[in-house]
Amino acid sequence: MITDPKNSPIVPATISAAPNYALYFDSIYHGYGDKTVLENVDFRVSQGSFVCVVGPSGCGKSTLLRLITGQEQPREARRFEILGKPGGFPDARRGVVFQEYSLQPHRTLLGNVILGLELQAKPWQLFSFSWRKKARAMAIQYLKWMRLEDALDRYPGELSGGMRQRAAIAQTLVTLEPNSNPQILCMDEAFSALDAGTRQDLQVLALELWEKYHITVVFVTHNLEEAVYLGTRVVVLSQYWTSDLGDGRPQGSRIVMDKRLDPRAMRTSWKQSPEFAKIVAEIREMIMNPNHRVHVDQFNQYSDHPDFFQTLTEAESRKNGVIKRPEES
Amino acid sequence: MQQMVAKMQRIPKFWGIHARPGRVLTKVLGSLPLLVIIGMYLTASHYRHIENPSDKLIPTPLVMFQEMKQIMTVPDKRSGEILFWTDTKASLTRLALGVGIASISGYLLGILMGVFPGLRALLTPVITGLANINPLALLVIILVSLGVGESSKIFLIVFGIGVAITRSIQQSVEKIPKELIAKSLTLGASQFEVLTRVVAPQMLPKLIELCKVSLGSAWIFVIAAEAVASTEGLGYRIYLQQRYMNMGLIIPYVLYISLIAYVTDLLFQLALDKLFPWYNKVK
């Protein structure tokens, strides 16, 4: 038990059991060489969240994603758990769409999408004609959703960046239905290379799949409208300058803002509402002022708990950047 | 009536960095130096032949033709074989075995060293050391320890090009983006599957390309080994004829070796284009 009263967290009385966390990062420190990238990052994501990570370039968004996928291990961490288990190396529970280099150059687009199904299949299924046919049909279906039905037999090297990006998304998502993998989906600016129309279609598709398969999504983006539209939660990661030391050196990034959004607001019409614009402006201001330090209160650690909305007063919610869920009538 | 025609920039045919020699001009330009060299040779041989009809240093094409005709049609008195084909078969067998063994072992070892950092740490000093040994300087040691049979010649080729192939493959494996490996792991690949389904297939065209490039050095080692210790082979024949100053046979043999090298190079390029259409499209 915690004995030091200064360090004891303020635990809302109603929260007793730990909620179901997909990611439980407590005091993560990470960096390369002398450089600290992430400093004291607490990042808890309950299962089924759609977390959008935004922040200025070079603030460590991709580094955070690499920690989640297991490509890198944190230097220091009080707790570093993914789906209730210690981090570990990349595995099928965590899907990822990189900015680039997601597709195998020696396989056609169809081959690339089928690859995931093949790798997760039972050995005997690979020799079953009906299974192969089904896998092929499924892969084609996903590529059609990505509007790539004309490029099934093309190699990644022949295609434009946007087409490759869409194929990479199909490749990652195709195992959702047969294997319920990935359970955590990491997307690193996955929609950045797409035109406006395709982007909007894919945003809707992402939301549909998220709802249907109850996956946890960590979505890194530079587009704030996209972040506020898609996310149930928007996390702003930013470097901060220590004035305490007096030398004004940039330190590692930490979470300067953690904004929870009502999932039910996620529909296209919400984008036109003034509140939407207000939230976007608020986040933009936060990103553009890296000196603007916001302390995420200690009890905010528990704000990801499903009961969180009930346990906080309205004033507290506003203070912590929580949109109050509308009363159910 | 005067037509309005925009004044277009004239594109030069030959001079300057904007030049675009057409198809025909490219062929003409390319054949010019060749024709000059052949012409010079023919003139020289012609006049030397007039001065001294039994000249052996710069033989006329007729002499070369007769020499080749004899070696290609008249069986050898001692063995009863046609020496030209015996030589070709012997040299090509050595070459194929050497390049085959070197490429397969280099491919496997290179991939393993590229993928597994532990193995890389274990073997890199040895491989780097071996790469700095000149294979031709090692020839005597190979002959003494392995004898003058076929194995020593093949070993020379394997040693000469195998180390380079291993290092090249290893470096290419290390150049595969880490994201690609991570991606396949998140798709559900095991460590073994990363090896067999991601790394190995991507390295196959690289291997063909390396074989193509290594054939040049492989020929050097074949000829060198045959010159030192052999009883048949293209290199052996050339060095044998050196004693009689028989340029009439040596020059066609050299050209024949060049022709084989040219054809094999073409075949490898063809295989590369046909089997791995994606290879040159990788961005």
Describe it.
The complex is a heterodimer of chains A (329) and B (283). Chain A has 329 residues and is an alpha/beta fold. Chain A has ten helices and ten strands. Chain A has two domains: 19-93 and 184-308, 3-Layer(aba) Sandwich (Rossmann fold), CATH 3.40.50.300; 104-181, no CATH class. A six-stranded mixed beta sheet of chain A has the order 6-7-8-3-9-10, sandwiched between helices. A four-stranded antiparallel beta sheet of chain A has the order 2-1-4-5, with helices on one face. The longest helix of chain A has 18 residues, at 196-213. The radius of gyration of chain A is 21 Å and the shape is globular. Residues 1-17, 292-303 and 305-329 of chain A have low confidence and may be disordered. Chain B has ten helices and no strands. The model of chain B has no long low-confidence stretch (mean pLDDT 92). With 283 residues, chain B is mainly α. Chain B has one domain (72-274): MetI-like (MetI-like fold, Orthogonal Bundle), CATH 1.10.3720. Chain B has helices at residues 23-51, 61-73, 83-115, 117-131, 139-146, 150-175, 178-186, 191-228, 234-242, 247-275. Classes of the chains: A alpha/beta (329), B mainly alpha (283). At the A-B interface, strand 6 and helix 2 of A face helix 7 and helix 8 of B.
What structural class should be given to the helix and strand makeup of chain B?
Answer: mainly alpha
Helical content class of chain B: over 70%
Q: Which whole number gives the mean pLDDT of chain B?
A: 92
Low-confidence stretches of chain A: 1-17, 292-303, 305-329
Reading the helices and strands of chain A in chain order gives EEEHEEEHHHHEHEHEEHHH
Compile the SSE list and pairings.
The complex is a heterodimer of chains A (329) and B (283).
Chain A: E1 21-32, E2 35-46, E3 50-54, H1 61-69, E4 79-82, E5 85-86, E6 94-97, H2 109-120, H3 129-145, H4 161-173, H5 176-179, E7 184-188, H6 196-213, E8 216-220, H7 224-230, E9 233-241, E10 250-260, H8 274-288, H9 308-311, H10 314-319
Parallel strand pairs in A: 3-8, 3-9, 6-7, 7-8
Antiparallel strand pairs in A: 1-2, 1-4, 4-5, 9-10
Helix pairs in contact in A: 2-3, 2-4, 3-4, 7-8
Chain B: H1 23-51, H2 61-73, H3 83-115, H4 117-131, H5 139-146, H6 150-175, H7 178-186, H8 191-228, H9 234-242, H10 247-275
Helix pairs in contact in B: 2-10, 3-4, 3-6, 3-8, 3-9, 4-6, 5-6, 6-8, 7-8, 8-9, 8-10, 9-10
